[in-house]
């Protein structure tokens, strides 16, 4: 989750300025094709506001963005019905598209009930801001590449109480989900750019750029890549001043249970960093609870 | 003279039924029969006038063919379409006479009696086991083989109605029923349908007979049935699907081209939903059988909009029980695995009719509604959003005491899913006394009920606070929990160990629960870890110990004494529980559990950590960890490394 840009429902006509922004250049140059992916900014807005609006356009959805701007709608297109690009949905043998892939082995830090704690950096432009964030896993189904839980943001300036959301996650296992998101307004370019922020993605990058990294053996990789998508606010209304329109690219370390993430939402300031560690909640050791549906 | 004008008054007619004159009796019989056909009011008034016993008397004592035929036909009419009529003829003791007449030398008599039997057996009032007494069974088989096709058809219909238990199925198969019925598939539409109907009853839930059917005549018999899936007659299509669904359910890969057949059955059944009458009513139930535990097929069904079609039925009021049960069962199967199915169904806003069905008078509807809730509740997200309706709690809890054990089991499963830490239902379960019910059921003599109740209690304790844990334990008692840890059923033992694991999870107050009553729970876990060979049980035990080891110094020492006890000679390297599980190569999860114990016992900056590390070192643990740092399982490898790091903080004392 992140703050809603106060300019979100800005009136219809906007003049776009083509000047590149120095401050954000290094974030935005990689993997760019000629003529696309320019940094755009709004004319006549203060710098801090500019950066929030700094949008990166892929030509293909530029039009859509403009349409949405005009009608003040969210940029989110309806996700695919069963946003799961890797599963074949027809034919006789309805096995998964990548039969050779082995599911990742269990990791105790992905046990239901596990708590994580840390921060999300929501800085934009000159304003330096970070929230304390607590996450708790409530469900995990490695077979289906699924996990879910709650996320609590503390000391959010605009909110009186901690804000709790419920999220669902996809594990990139090349069986249920691949590195390519295929929904939530993320292009392949967006995907690679965000994954590439994780140092542990380095060795995989070329393969992923080539074919989505479908033949990579992720089961034995010391890191697990995921997407966490918040679904609803638990304790506040949608008018709480925060948005959950985006989602997190997540890199989870199997060895110590630490979580790194980057929030992606075309309407919010880019690359907000989430940093969490698995916590034992102040006990002198780690404990693990268990439940199972019948 | 025109007969309608000549009918006598009813009272007189009934009198004439007992006339001594054969011609008069025959005429009266015929008149009564003609008057009551299709007329419920007439049937009721003649029943009131006492006509039925007189008609039956003719069947019992007369010998003339026309009289027998007419009386049998009249019995059939009385029994047709009106339960009071069925009751009246059964009360008059007609059954033995009808059955006896099946061996009459005259075909017309036999046919008429068979037809009446068919009418009677369409009702649930018919006593079914009566048909399976040895000589009667032989008789029915003989009739199945009758050259008179309508007799054979009737025999098949009677079998379809009364073959209900495994014993019935076996008796029928032993008497050669399978072959006879398959032969009838070549007959007229009606005969074929009766035979398919009986084959469906014969194969339902019976692995042996399903296997027999699929291998019969080198699979040609089954192939015949497969062709019928695309027959012109909707009823034939339905019944063929029923047979094949039974076969498919019993043995997953029993026929060739299985996938094609199954998917085409699926689309045939979905189309049959719209058929009027009994075909449409029964189709959802058959679909439920077809897709049961077949995930791939469930996914295809999803693509066919099946959820939406079935959900629409729930929006209609007053579905016949059989149809309602079938619809709910089909939805329960389709939603058992796929969240997308659950989402589609819940978005149709049909929660209220499903909850209402929990209180339906029909057992099968209640069971199906329970199954449906169970499937829908297998999702954290649903429990927090679309399924958060608290009104489902009370009827479910009521079903925990249902007279049917099947329903109790299903209700337990559903309750088990809705009382988790993050659900709004948990508090309601508590308020309505659900916890006491669960504890009572955990003491049941029925092993399945016991298993599911302990499982539910484990889920309830998951992430609970100390107050709740104490409340539950106050009522359950440590001693009962220990009994469950040593239950005769392995699966119960596993759940009981997991319950202990959740009980001692958390802060020191929770951990302390392991030490109450002279640490009786801890010792029970220890004993299981020594004795059990079941890794699932031991994994839970190791995590229980690891949770205790996350507590205070006292708790850590208690765990030390269990997993690596000191002797007067020092630590015995080979027999400690800890080494046993660190070295276990059967299941990596055992090694992981054991490693968490080590990690917690050597947790940095805890008071007695140095002493524990040296004891563990002496017990050969550090050397074992070094081996495990190269374990093929990632989780083991990572945990071993963490443990080694913690060891490295305490130096090895110079010798």
Automatic annotation (TrEMBL), chain A:
Residues 73-90 have a biased composition (Polar residues). It holds the Pfam family Vac_ImportDeg. Residues 68-90 are annotated as: Disordered. InterPro entries: GID4/10-like. Transmembrane segments: none annotated. Belongs to the GID4/VID24 family. This is Glucose-induced degradation protein 4 homolog.
From TrEMBL, chain B:
One of its GO terms (cellular component) is nucleus. Keywords: Cytoplasm, Nucleus, Repeat. Signal peptide: none annotated. Pfam families: Arm (PF00514). It is found in: Cytoplasm; Nucleus. It comes from the Eukaryota. SMART domains: ARM. The keyword NAD does not apply. InterPro entries: ARM-like (IPR011989), ARM-type_fold (IPR016024), Armadillo (IPR000225), ARMC8/Vid28 (IPR038739). This is Armadillo repeat-containing protein 8.
